[in-house]
Structures are given as structure tokens and as C-alpha cells.
Amino acid sequence: MANSGDSETGDDGLPDADVGLRKIIHVDMDAFFASVEQRDNPELRGKPVAVGGSSGRGVVAAASYEARKFGVKSAMPSVTARRLCPDLIFCKSHFDRYREVSEHIRAIFHFHTPHVEPLSLDEAYLDVTQDIHGIGSATAIAQAIRRQIREETQLTASAGVSYNKFLAKLASDQNKPDGLFVVRPGEGATFVHSLPIRRFHGVGPKGAEKMGRLGIETGADLASKDADWLRAHFGSFGEYLFRAARGIDLRPVRANRIRKSIGGERTFSEDISSGSALRETLDRMVEIVWERILAKEAKGKTVTLKLKFNDFQLITRARSSDRAIADKAQFAGIAHEILAAELPLPMPIRLMGLTLSNLEREGAGDDSGREDAQLSLL
């Protein structure tokens, strides 16, 4: 990968602070929950492990890389995971332990920069434009962070290094697990063009299918479309796609974001409409979203259900409590009340979303922003 000029760049080709471009690192822990369980229980090392409930309605919260080889992934029903991997070992989640390890890792981040934007317990953006310890380059800082994490926690992390958040996040996934990848100035568009469209954040299975019908399979295909064409086919999402296809992202790293909501959404492989199927799906979503709420130590008063019909019409329905929702049973109860008020549906739906909002400014909810694009459950 080419440098941008010897006099104005560090030894990784990223610009010095006075040039104007940022130096961004995205750090993503490798199979974090499952890796903590394997670290703390030597008998689990090297074996397929899933964190989450193993009962009929249980959901996989995280899967080790040994399990992922069989197709097991987060948000998957436990019965499906067991079918894919009969030797799968289920572990009960220990969020207190995960939070403790996460705080240790964040302390490592803050040693290198005050500009840390956590996205969840296991990933964060860091702006290291100012090299406060004189390490020499953003790449060297990322290597130092990964080395320090391994030495102090016995866990591995992957990192992406680039000049904006979008590219850094894509890069961190390029050489997983335990990898490092750098996208230098002038290389962003070329890098993005080489990626399958499914790698773009926010493009789910249905979106990728629609793009495939329009002849878009890669970033290069997407970049061949102008802004008007993308807006005509994808509405406001087309603006994001136009910039992303060119490796453009002007968002700064925000160190003290106030979380607005915590949630998730699921796009179905087949449209659903029956009340029983909808209630079962909602139960699974409650399990996943409530685990995220616990992980963030968040407290909120408003539950919102989002339904997207197969004609792409979207509705949202919300209910609020006078006080912060106390437990998962109350959260589930409100969600089911909202759904029940909409049944029977006028037509099948292709997507369901569930969020908790109206959050109090307490606990871990203060240090990171809204779940990015509601983090698709599948």
C-alpha cells in the first residue's frame, strides 16, 4: 500500500496531525464473550462454545471461532445451533465478568488516547491523530494496544487502521481473528470496491438480495451508480451508500456520546404473518435485546416495536412506563402488548425491530452512542 508523501506521513503512510486527515483505529475483540469463557475455563479451550440459553427458545449471544466453523453465530436460535454443531457446549452468560474485562480493555485504550468511542463491551473507535506517547504511527499504536490486551487479559483483538471510521471498521474485520489491517490515504475507494456488498454496514440479507437483482454485488458495482440512481432505489439510505462506495466518512470519534436507545432488528428469510410466528420471533428478540440492556447497565422507560411490511411500508409503535423498566418480564410484557394491539396484521412483514429508549443518564449508557443501525440480529 502506497504512502502519501514521506515528509507529511508516519511510517504507516497515514498523515501527520497537521495535514488534516484523522488517524482512526477500530478495535474489535475476537469472539469476546466466548473467549472470556474459554480463558476462565481451560476445559473449554479449543472446543465449540456458545454463550446463551440452551433451552428450546434460547438464543446464542456469542459463539467461539470453533463453533463458527459449523455456521453457529450470534442471534441464532439455540436449537438451530445445536443442529449445526451437535458437540456445541453452551455456557451461561456472565455479564459482570464481561464488563470487568471490558473496563480493563478500555483503560488500555485510554492510556493511548482520550478519544475513545465505545460501541459495545467488545469494540471501540480510537482517534490517535495525536500520538501522545511518541510511538511513531497509528499502526504501531494499534500493534501496541493489541499486544497489551493479550499480555494483560490473555485475550486477542483485531484492529483496523485508517483515516476514517467506516474504513477502520471494515479493516478490523479483514484479518480476523487476531489480525491487523491498514487502509491508507488514497486506497480507501479501491479497498471498498473489492468487498462484497454484504460487508457494508447496514446492508442486511434482504438488502443484499435487492442489490443483487439490480446488478450490485461488490463495492465497485455500487460505486458505478450515481447519487440520483441510488436515491431513487434506496431513498435516504442511498446517500450513505453513495459515500460508502467511495470510502467517504466524515464522522468524528465522539468520546462522550449519550446513548439514545438500545435495540435490534431482524430481517426474515421469508415473510411472516401468523400470530404465533410473530410472538415467537418477538420472544427471541426480547432475549437478545435484554442481554444488550444488561451489558450496558441501561435503564429506560419506552419500548418501541418496528414492523416493515412486505411492500416496504414501515410502522413503529411505542409505549412508555412512568418509571424505568425493572426487568426482562416487564420489557417482554410491554413488547407483547404492543404487538397484540396490531394483530391481525394487514399483510406479512419482512422485518421486526425492538428497542428500549428514553434512557436515564446512569451507568454504562453514558459512554457510548446509539446502537449503530440497531445492529441487525441476523
Automatic annotation (TrEMBL):
Main subcellular localisation: cytoplasm
Subcellular location: Cytoplasm
Cofactor-binding details, from the entry: Binds 2 magnesium ions per subunit.
GO annotation terms (biological process): DNA repair; DNA-templated DNA replication; error-prone translesion synthesis; SOS response
Matching SUPFAM superfamilies: DNA/RNA polymerases (SSF56672), Lesion bypass DNA polymerase (Y-family), little finger domain (SSF100879)
Catalytic-site annotation from UniProt: 123
EC number: 2.7.7.7
Gene3D superfamilies in alphabetical order: 3.30.70.270, 3.40.1170.60, 5' to 3' exonuclease, C-terminal subdomain, DNA polymerase, Y-family, little finger domain
Site location (Substrate discrimination): 33
A cellular component annotation (GO) from this entry: cytosol
Keyword Calcium recorded: no
Cofactor annotation: Mg(2+)
Catalytic activity of the protein: DNA(n) + a 2'-deoxyribonucleoside 5'-triphosphate = DNA(n+1) + diphosphate
Gene Ontology terms, MF aspect: damaged DNA binding; DNA-directed DNA polymerase activity; magnesium ion binding
Pfam families named among the record's database cross-references: IMS (PF00817), IMS_C (PF11799)
Record key words, sorted: Cytoplasm, DNA damage, DNA repair, DNA replication, DNA-binding, DNA-directed DNA polymerase, Magnesium, Metal-binding, Mutator protein, Nucleotidyltransferase, Transferase
InterPro entries in UniProt: DNA/RNA_pol_sf, DNA_pol_Y-fam_lit_finger_sf, DNA_pol_Y-fam_little_finger, DNA_polymerase-Y, DNApol_IV, Rev_trsase/Diguanyl_cyclase, UmuC
All residue ranges annotated as the UmuC domain in the record: 24-204
Binding positions (Mg(2+)): 28, 122
Assembly behavior: Monomer.
Function statement: Poorly processive, error-prone DNA polymerase involved in untargeted mutagenesis. Copies undamaged DNA at stalled replication forks, which arise in vivo from mismatched or misaligned primer ends. These misaligned primers can be extended by PolIV. Exhibits no 3'-5' exonuclease (proofreading) activity. May be involved in translesional synthesis, in conjunction with the beta clamp from PolIII.
Similarity comment text for this entry: Belongs to the DNA polymerase type-Y family.
PANTHER family assigned: DNA POLYMERASE KAPPA, DNA REPAIR POLYMERASE UMUC / TRANSFERASE FAMILY MEMBER
Protein name per its UniProtKB record: DNA polymerase IV
Organism of this sequence: Aurantiacibacter atlanticus
